[in-house]
Design brief:
Layout (H helix, E strand, L loop, with lengths): L6 E5 L3 E7 L5 E3 L9 E2 L1 E4 L4 E3 L1 H5 L8 E3 L21 H20 L4 E6 L5 H13 L3 E7 H12 L13 E8 L4 E9 L2 E10 L4 H20 L7 H20 L2 E8 L2 E8 H7 L1 H17 L9 E5 L6 H11 L12 H17 L9 E3 L6 E6 L6 E7 L7 E8 L7 E8 L9 E8 L11 E8 L5 E6 L11 E3 L5 H12 L4 H12 L12 H8 L19 E2 L16 H5 L3 H8 L5 H26 L9
Parallel strand pairs: 1-8, 8-9, 10-15, 12-16
Antiparallel strand pairs: 1-2, 2-3, 2-4, 5-6, 5-7, 10-11, 11-12, 13-14, 17-18, 17-20, 19-22, 20-21, 20-25, 21-24, 22-23
The structure holds adenosine-5'-diphosphate (ADP) and magnesium ion (MG).
The site of magnesium ion (MG) has 5 residues, from loops.
Length: 636
Amino acid sequence: MSRQTPVGIDLGTTFSTAAWVDESGRTEIVRNAEGELLTPSAVMFADEELVVGKEARSATTIHPEMVAEWVKRDMGLPYYSRPIHGRKLPPEVIQACILRKLKGDIVRELGRVDRVVITVPAYFDEPRRKGTADAGEMAGLKVLDIVNEPTAAALSFGETLGYLTPGAEPKEEMTLLVYDLGGGTFDVTLLRLSPGKIQTIATDGDVMLGGHDWDLRLVDYVARRFKRLHKRDPREDPVIINRALAAAIDAKHALSARGRTIMHIEVAGQTVEVPITRGQFEEMTADLLERTTYTTRQLLAAAKMEWKDVSRVLLVGGSTRMPMVGEMLRNLSGMEPDHTVNADEAVARGAALYAAYLLDKESGDEARAGLSITNVNSHSLGVEGIDPETLRKKNVVLIPRNTPLPAKFTERFVTRSENQRSIAVQIIEGESSMPDECTAIGRTVIRDLPKGLPKNWPIEVTFEYAENGRLTVKAVAPGTHQGATLDMERSVGISREGMTRWKQPIDEAAGFDAFESMIQEVMEPSADDHDEPTTPEAIRAMQADFSGPVSGPSRPGGWTPFVAGPRSPEPEPETSPEQDDESLVADGTHRVKSVARPSFPRWVGLIGHVIAALLGLALGYMILCRLRPESFPFPW
Ligand code: ADP
Ligand code: MG
């Protein structure tokens, strides 16, 4: 069998890149059909065909109803936040369209594509990782693995410095801080690099911060100048916004190289020339940069480290080309940021190196078999439990954030009632102590518990988180000789069958009609099941938690997990009229509300109603007496 070519894909928020490893072990970047190394992550669903890349990006503001951009920010949600042709599309499907374009470019360059590694931000949670792997599959790619972007960047760095070369002379251990500022997202990660070994220490970031926010500040600046001169806001016209945005990006890039530039903006034959200096640009965006400074400081604090413990600061992502970034990090860390890796390409190259490592390992080639990669989990994982004291829902964290992987933790719970026959465990991800503020990622149910178990029977829930970020949950009732049935239900995502169906329009790069019929066939029957927020505000609210404070979870014992009463083998629908209090327990939401409600005997309520009615009568009588005293025999 001929050698499989290792391929890595950086599926970025703004740009995507593919790289491969040649026979000699060197990484190369795949050039796209347009002759460029970076492909804009934009998809245009035109009537006749699917267009991905530069052309789609140019059409963004002219045909916003057709173009999807920044889709990576919406991964993990059931639908992309902006409707396309008025219809809701799953983000995985749109990401698959980008991957399909990259696949075409890889095949053009290499003749074929075997298996690929795709990168994701370290802060991506489980549904978003799985969604990315699903997107690869829908694009017709065989996904070897998903790897974290900072790990890929560190691999690229390690390879350049000879840390990954088997048999090279021993090198000392280094602590790397990878500062990645792309177009739409920011993340920062601490890693430990030693020969043949990469270990993530901690990670943090901001999913709503990137180079695009810097562009928008420049757009606002020229728009205000234009308005002052021509009494008209150019931002009212989408075509003009598009032009202003393009001018802003050019100006921003120019200001990375020079101290001043001129932005031109033309509206209905009137042109304004707006000169701008680097100093002005830095001043108008200082708060954006400050947000990255804050997150970087938070990360060091979370890892209980100081700058003296950091050996190198690696700059990754196109926006780190802005001189203000290097300067800020120089002042903050007291060291010169490292430019060893190419900010645009390091992630894709590292992913290709990881693919090479996995393929070599699989084929029994010992050359790279010594490489070891350790990740941490970027969000706390737990289950929705009930505080026995307050009877309120509580996030019982099993694997706290930034725990090295693989990790395995077991927590003990108890049943809530006598003769309980099944237990439902809701798995959640997030830092908040309130489950409603976390992301529900799945549910597992133990059924067929033996009859007659007393109340407070122990239930052990074990979370096993593998290196690749996959989670296995086991729930057992010790002492019951009955094999517990385990069902893992993913809360979001496309079914296997749905994925197979989506493949066709994606593969054919078909016009929107083909996608629309697929929406009707695959999505709509279950659309009501996913009544999740799709407005940008709601999404922001959902995604805000990952940049929140790192809180140490408290784990007092004796929590009651989802405890279901006797139930049929198949879960009953939530709205089933015959559900009693116990079966509502399995769902969580209703149960807690009903349990937490203060319960008075029924007659207390009845007496209350009678007293209220008498008081009402007396009051009415008094008012009438005041108004027409002559009609009433009473003296007051
Ligand atoms: P992502 O990981 O989000 O896909 P990239 O790492 O490709 O993003 O970075 C894209 C961002 O980098 C864009 O906002 C782009 O304008 C910005 N960028 C690229 N080159 C420069 C430069 N020379 N100066 C300033 N910003 C740049
Ligand atoms: Mg990136």
